[in-house]
Amino acid sequence: MSHIHLPDGVIPPAWWILGFVLCFALLWLFTGRIKGDELRRKIPFAGVIAALMLIFMSVPLGFLPVHLSLAVLCGILAGPGLSFIAIFVVNTILALMGHGGFTAIGINTLLMGGEAIAGYYLFKILSGRLSCTFSAILSNITALLLSTALMLILVASTAGLSEVLPFHDHGQNHGEEVHFAESKQEEELPENYDEHKAAEAEGVKFLSITGWSAVIMIILSGIFIESLLTGLIVNFFSKVRPDFLDIVHPT
């Protein structure tokens, strides 16, 4: 869910450079702490989860102009270290596909990696008291709300809230967004870029709700759907492969 699609040239250098520094520091930390048996047991699975993340993040839900990330699910099943590495790979591939510029890779990895890490530890705490399904749902909701709040603060302080509209690749806006992305990567902003994004914010409609209220409802609906899906998948793994969860669940 929390994935900014800002093309190159929008995020100030101080922000994206700091994002890369923190991102590579965490990558170095996690790669040094991952044990050999964990690599042999979970790295193929982490690759599968990364592929699923890439698919889900490339295709909107259809009835909702958002995509799922499965970052928390990846964190719960693969652990914080492997999930962070997988998320970095996914964001790099997405940048190559035009889903945000290369300068957003570090920040996006921190946002989604934060979801995975927070979701993992929240799930580990909650699952000792609650069922694995409910623990996964609560962990996913909490992690996504926190990362979404951080994303909104970051984007509002750099490019404006209209940049986080949840339909960057939905319908007729796709071609326009690609055009803007190409212009940004060439360090040349279209003259009507800000007006275009502001008009999108005012024109969002979800059911009978319009404007920013519709945007909020779309984001919350996406969080609920991803949390429910995460809970169901974790419940399945708790029955067939509980060793991937690394904890004992209450019956």
Structural description of this entry:
This protein has a two-stranded antiparallel sheet. The protein has a single domain, classed as Arp2/3 complex 21 kDa subunit ARPC3. The protein starts with 12 loop residues before the first helix and ends in an 11-residue tail after the last helix. The chain is built from nine helices and two strands. It is globular, with a radius of gyration of 18 Å. A hairpin with a 2-residue loop joins strand 1 and strand 2 (209-210). The model is unreliable at 166-189 (pLDDT under 50). By secondary structure, the protein is an all-alpha fold. Helix 1 crosses helix 4 (80-96), helix 1 (13-33) packs across helix 5 (105-126) and helix 2 (36-58) runs parallel beside helix 4.
Distance between the termini: 31 Å
- Shape designation: globular
User: What about the largest sheet?
Assistant: 2 strands, antiparallel
CATH architecture: Orthogonal Bundle
What structural class do you assign from the helix and strand content? mainly alpha
- Helix content percent band: 55-70%
Q: What amount of the residues lies in strands? A: under 5%
